Each structure stands twice: as structure tokens, then as C-alpha cells.
Prior knowledge:
By secondary structure, the chain is an alpha/beta fold. 44% of the residues lie in helices and 23% in strands.
Amino acid sequence: MAKLPGAKPRIGLLGTGPWAARTHAPALAGHPGVEFSGVWGRRPEAAEALAAASGTRAYDDVDALFAASDAVALALPPDVQAPLAVRAAEAGCHVLLDKPVATTVAGAREVAEAVEKAGVASVVFCTLRFAEETARWIEERTAAGGWFLGEAHWLGSLHGPGSASAYAASPWRREKGGLWDVGPHVLSVYLPVLGDVTAITAVPGPADTHHLVLRHSSGASSTATLTLSAPPEAAEVSLALYGTGGRAELPRWGGAVEAFGAAVDALITSARTGEPHPCDARFGLRLTEILTEAERLAAQSAADKA
């Protein structure tokens, strides 16, 4: 049974890596409307350190953290996240998930079904849907309609020459590349504005690069080039829409901590009202379905050319 958040909901954190330490923990510790109930991690010493720095306590038993929390935020590799999110939902905890929810359709579906069965609220933290500047832009572009084409480049240099990023050591990002790491961001913009994806073409480029052509339920089409391996000099993030209103370009956005705070607020609102958030576990499942098909098609294209 879903827990009923009180005046100050208790929210725990699963994960102790750079993303958890730089975004989730500061946002939870600094949020005036929640109690940061504790930290659990696969490395107990890292959980102790992060908890001490955040003014909360560490748990070596994840079920104990579930029992002490009304909701949990997860900052874990996707295929570690998914089964723990299922357990959290079964314990009645509302869940604030990271993207992608999982890198298998089966894993993402298990999360969505567990959330629905338990009646808990869920939110997937797709940054652009919660950063104030981009969230407002998406809402305005969705309301305007009339879009004909979308074009996106997300050229990250995480694995490019000379990268010193703390995220470069992430095994799942190294294995799955830009398609899975930054692809959800692009799709989180395209789907509400242009509609669901109805057809996909995908081909591989250099290193982990993927080129996608998408058809949407609105009749619009879009493209996306995704990579984590661009040379630093070529790194860029851009997304533009073209339609009856002319050309509209996605604006720059602020910090992830503030965006995550907005996602926390969205989860609490959903838990209290019972109204699903548009960026919920079911939406996360749809992202995984699209990315899985794109990955399959790109691999098939590469094999055909071999």
C-alpha cells in the first residue's frame, strides 16, 4: 500500500556516485519541504561519507531505508536501479527514478507494473522536463502545435580525447553510450511536443554515435545525433523545432540541483493528489522501448554493412 506523505515527506537516497553526490544529495538536504531520511549505497563507506556530508544517516540495509521513508530517489546504474525500484514500490515508497529507468524493456516494464500495482507515485528525472527554462519552453511549444520537423544534436565529449569528467568512469555509460545516456533527454522533449514515436530509422556513426530519424504521431518527423565521444572542440547540445510558427530553439538551462528539486516537488504533488505525472514510470518504459528498437536497428545496419 502506498504511503501517505505527511507535512514533511521523508525521502531517502539510493546511490553514492558523482551524480548522487553532486545533484540528488544537495537537493534533498537543501529542500525545505522534505526530510532527507537517509542514504544507502552498494559501498557502505561511500554511503557513510555522503550521509555525513548531507546531515543524514547511512543505512546498510536498503529495506530499513524503505521502512524509514515515504519516498526514495534513485541515482544508480539503470539495471541496478530497476529491481530496487520494484522493491521500493512494493514497500509502499513513491519513487523518483533516474533516466533511463532500465536498458531492457522487461526491466522497465517491471518497474512500471510494480508502481501501478502498489499505487505509488513515480517521476523519471529527465532534466529538461524539470529545469525551469526548458520545462516552460516545452509547455509553450506543446501548446503552440503546428510543428513539422525537429532536429537535435547532443554531442557530448564524456569519452572524447582528454576527458577528465567524473562520469567517464561509469561502466554503464561506457557500454551503452550516448544513445542511452543522452537519448532520453532528446526524447523527453520530442514526445510531448511532436507526439509518440511511430517509426524509427537508426544507423551507427563513429565510436558510440547514433543517428536517428523518427516519425511521430502528429505527422511530424525529427532527427537526433547522439554521442558521448565527440572531440571537446565539437561538443554541443542543440534542439530546434520548425513549423508554422517558424523556428524555435531549446534554450539554455540552469543547474541540475534546482531541476531535481522541481522533480521532488512533482513527486510529492503526484503522491498527494493521486494524479500521475507525465514523466512517470510508464513514460520511462516508453523511452526504453524506443531506445531498444533504435539500438537494434543500428546494430542490424552495422551488421548488414560488415
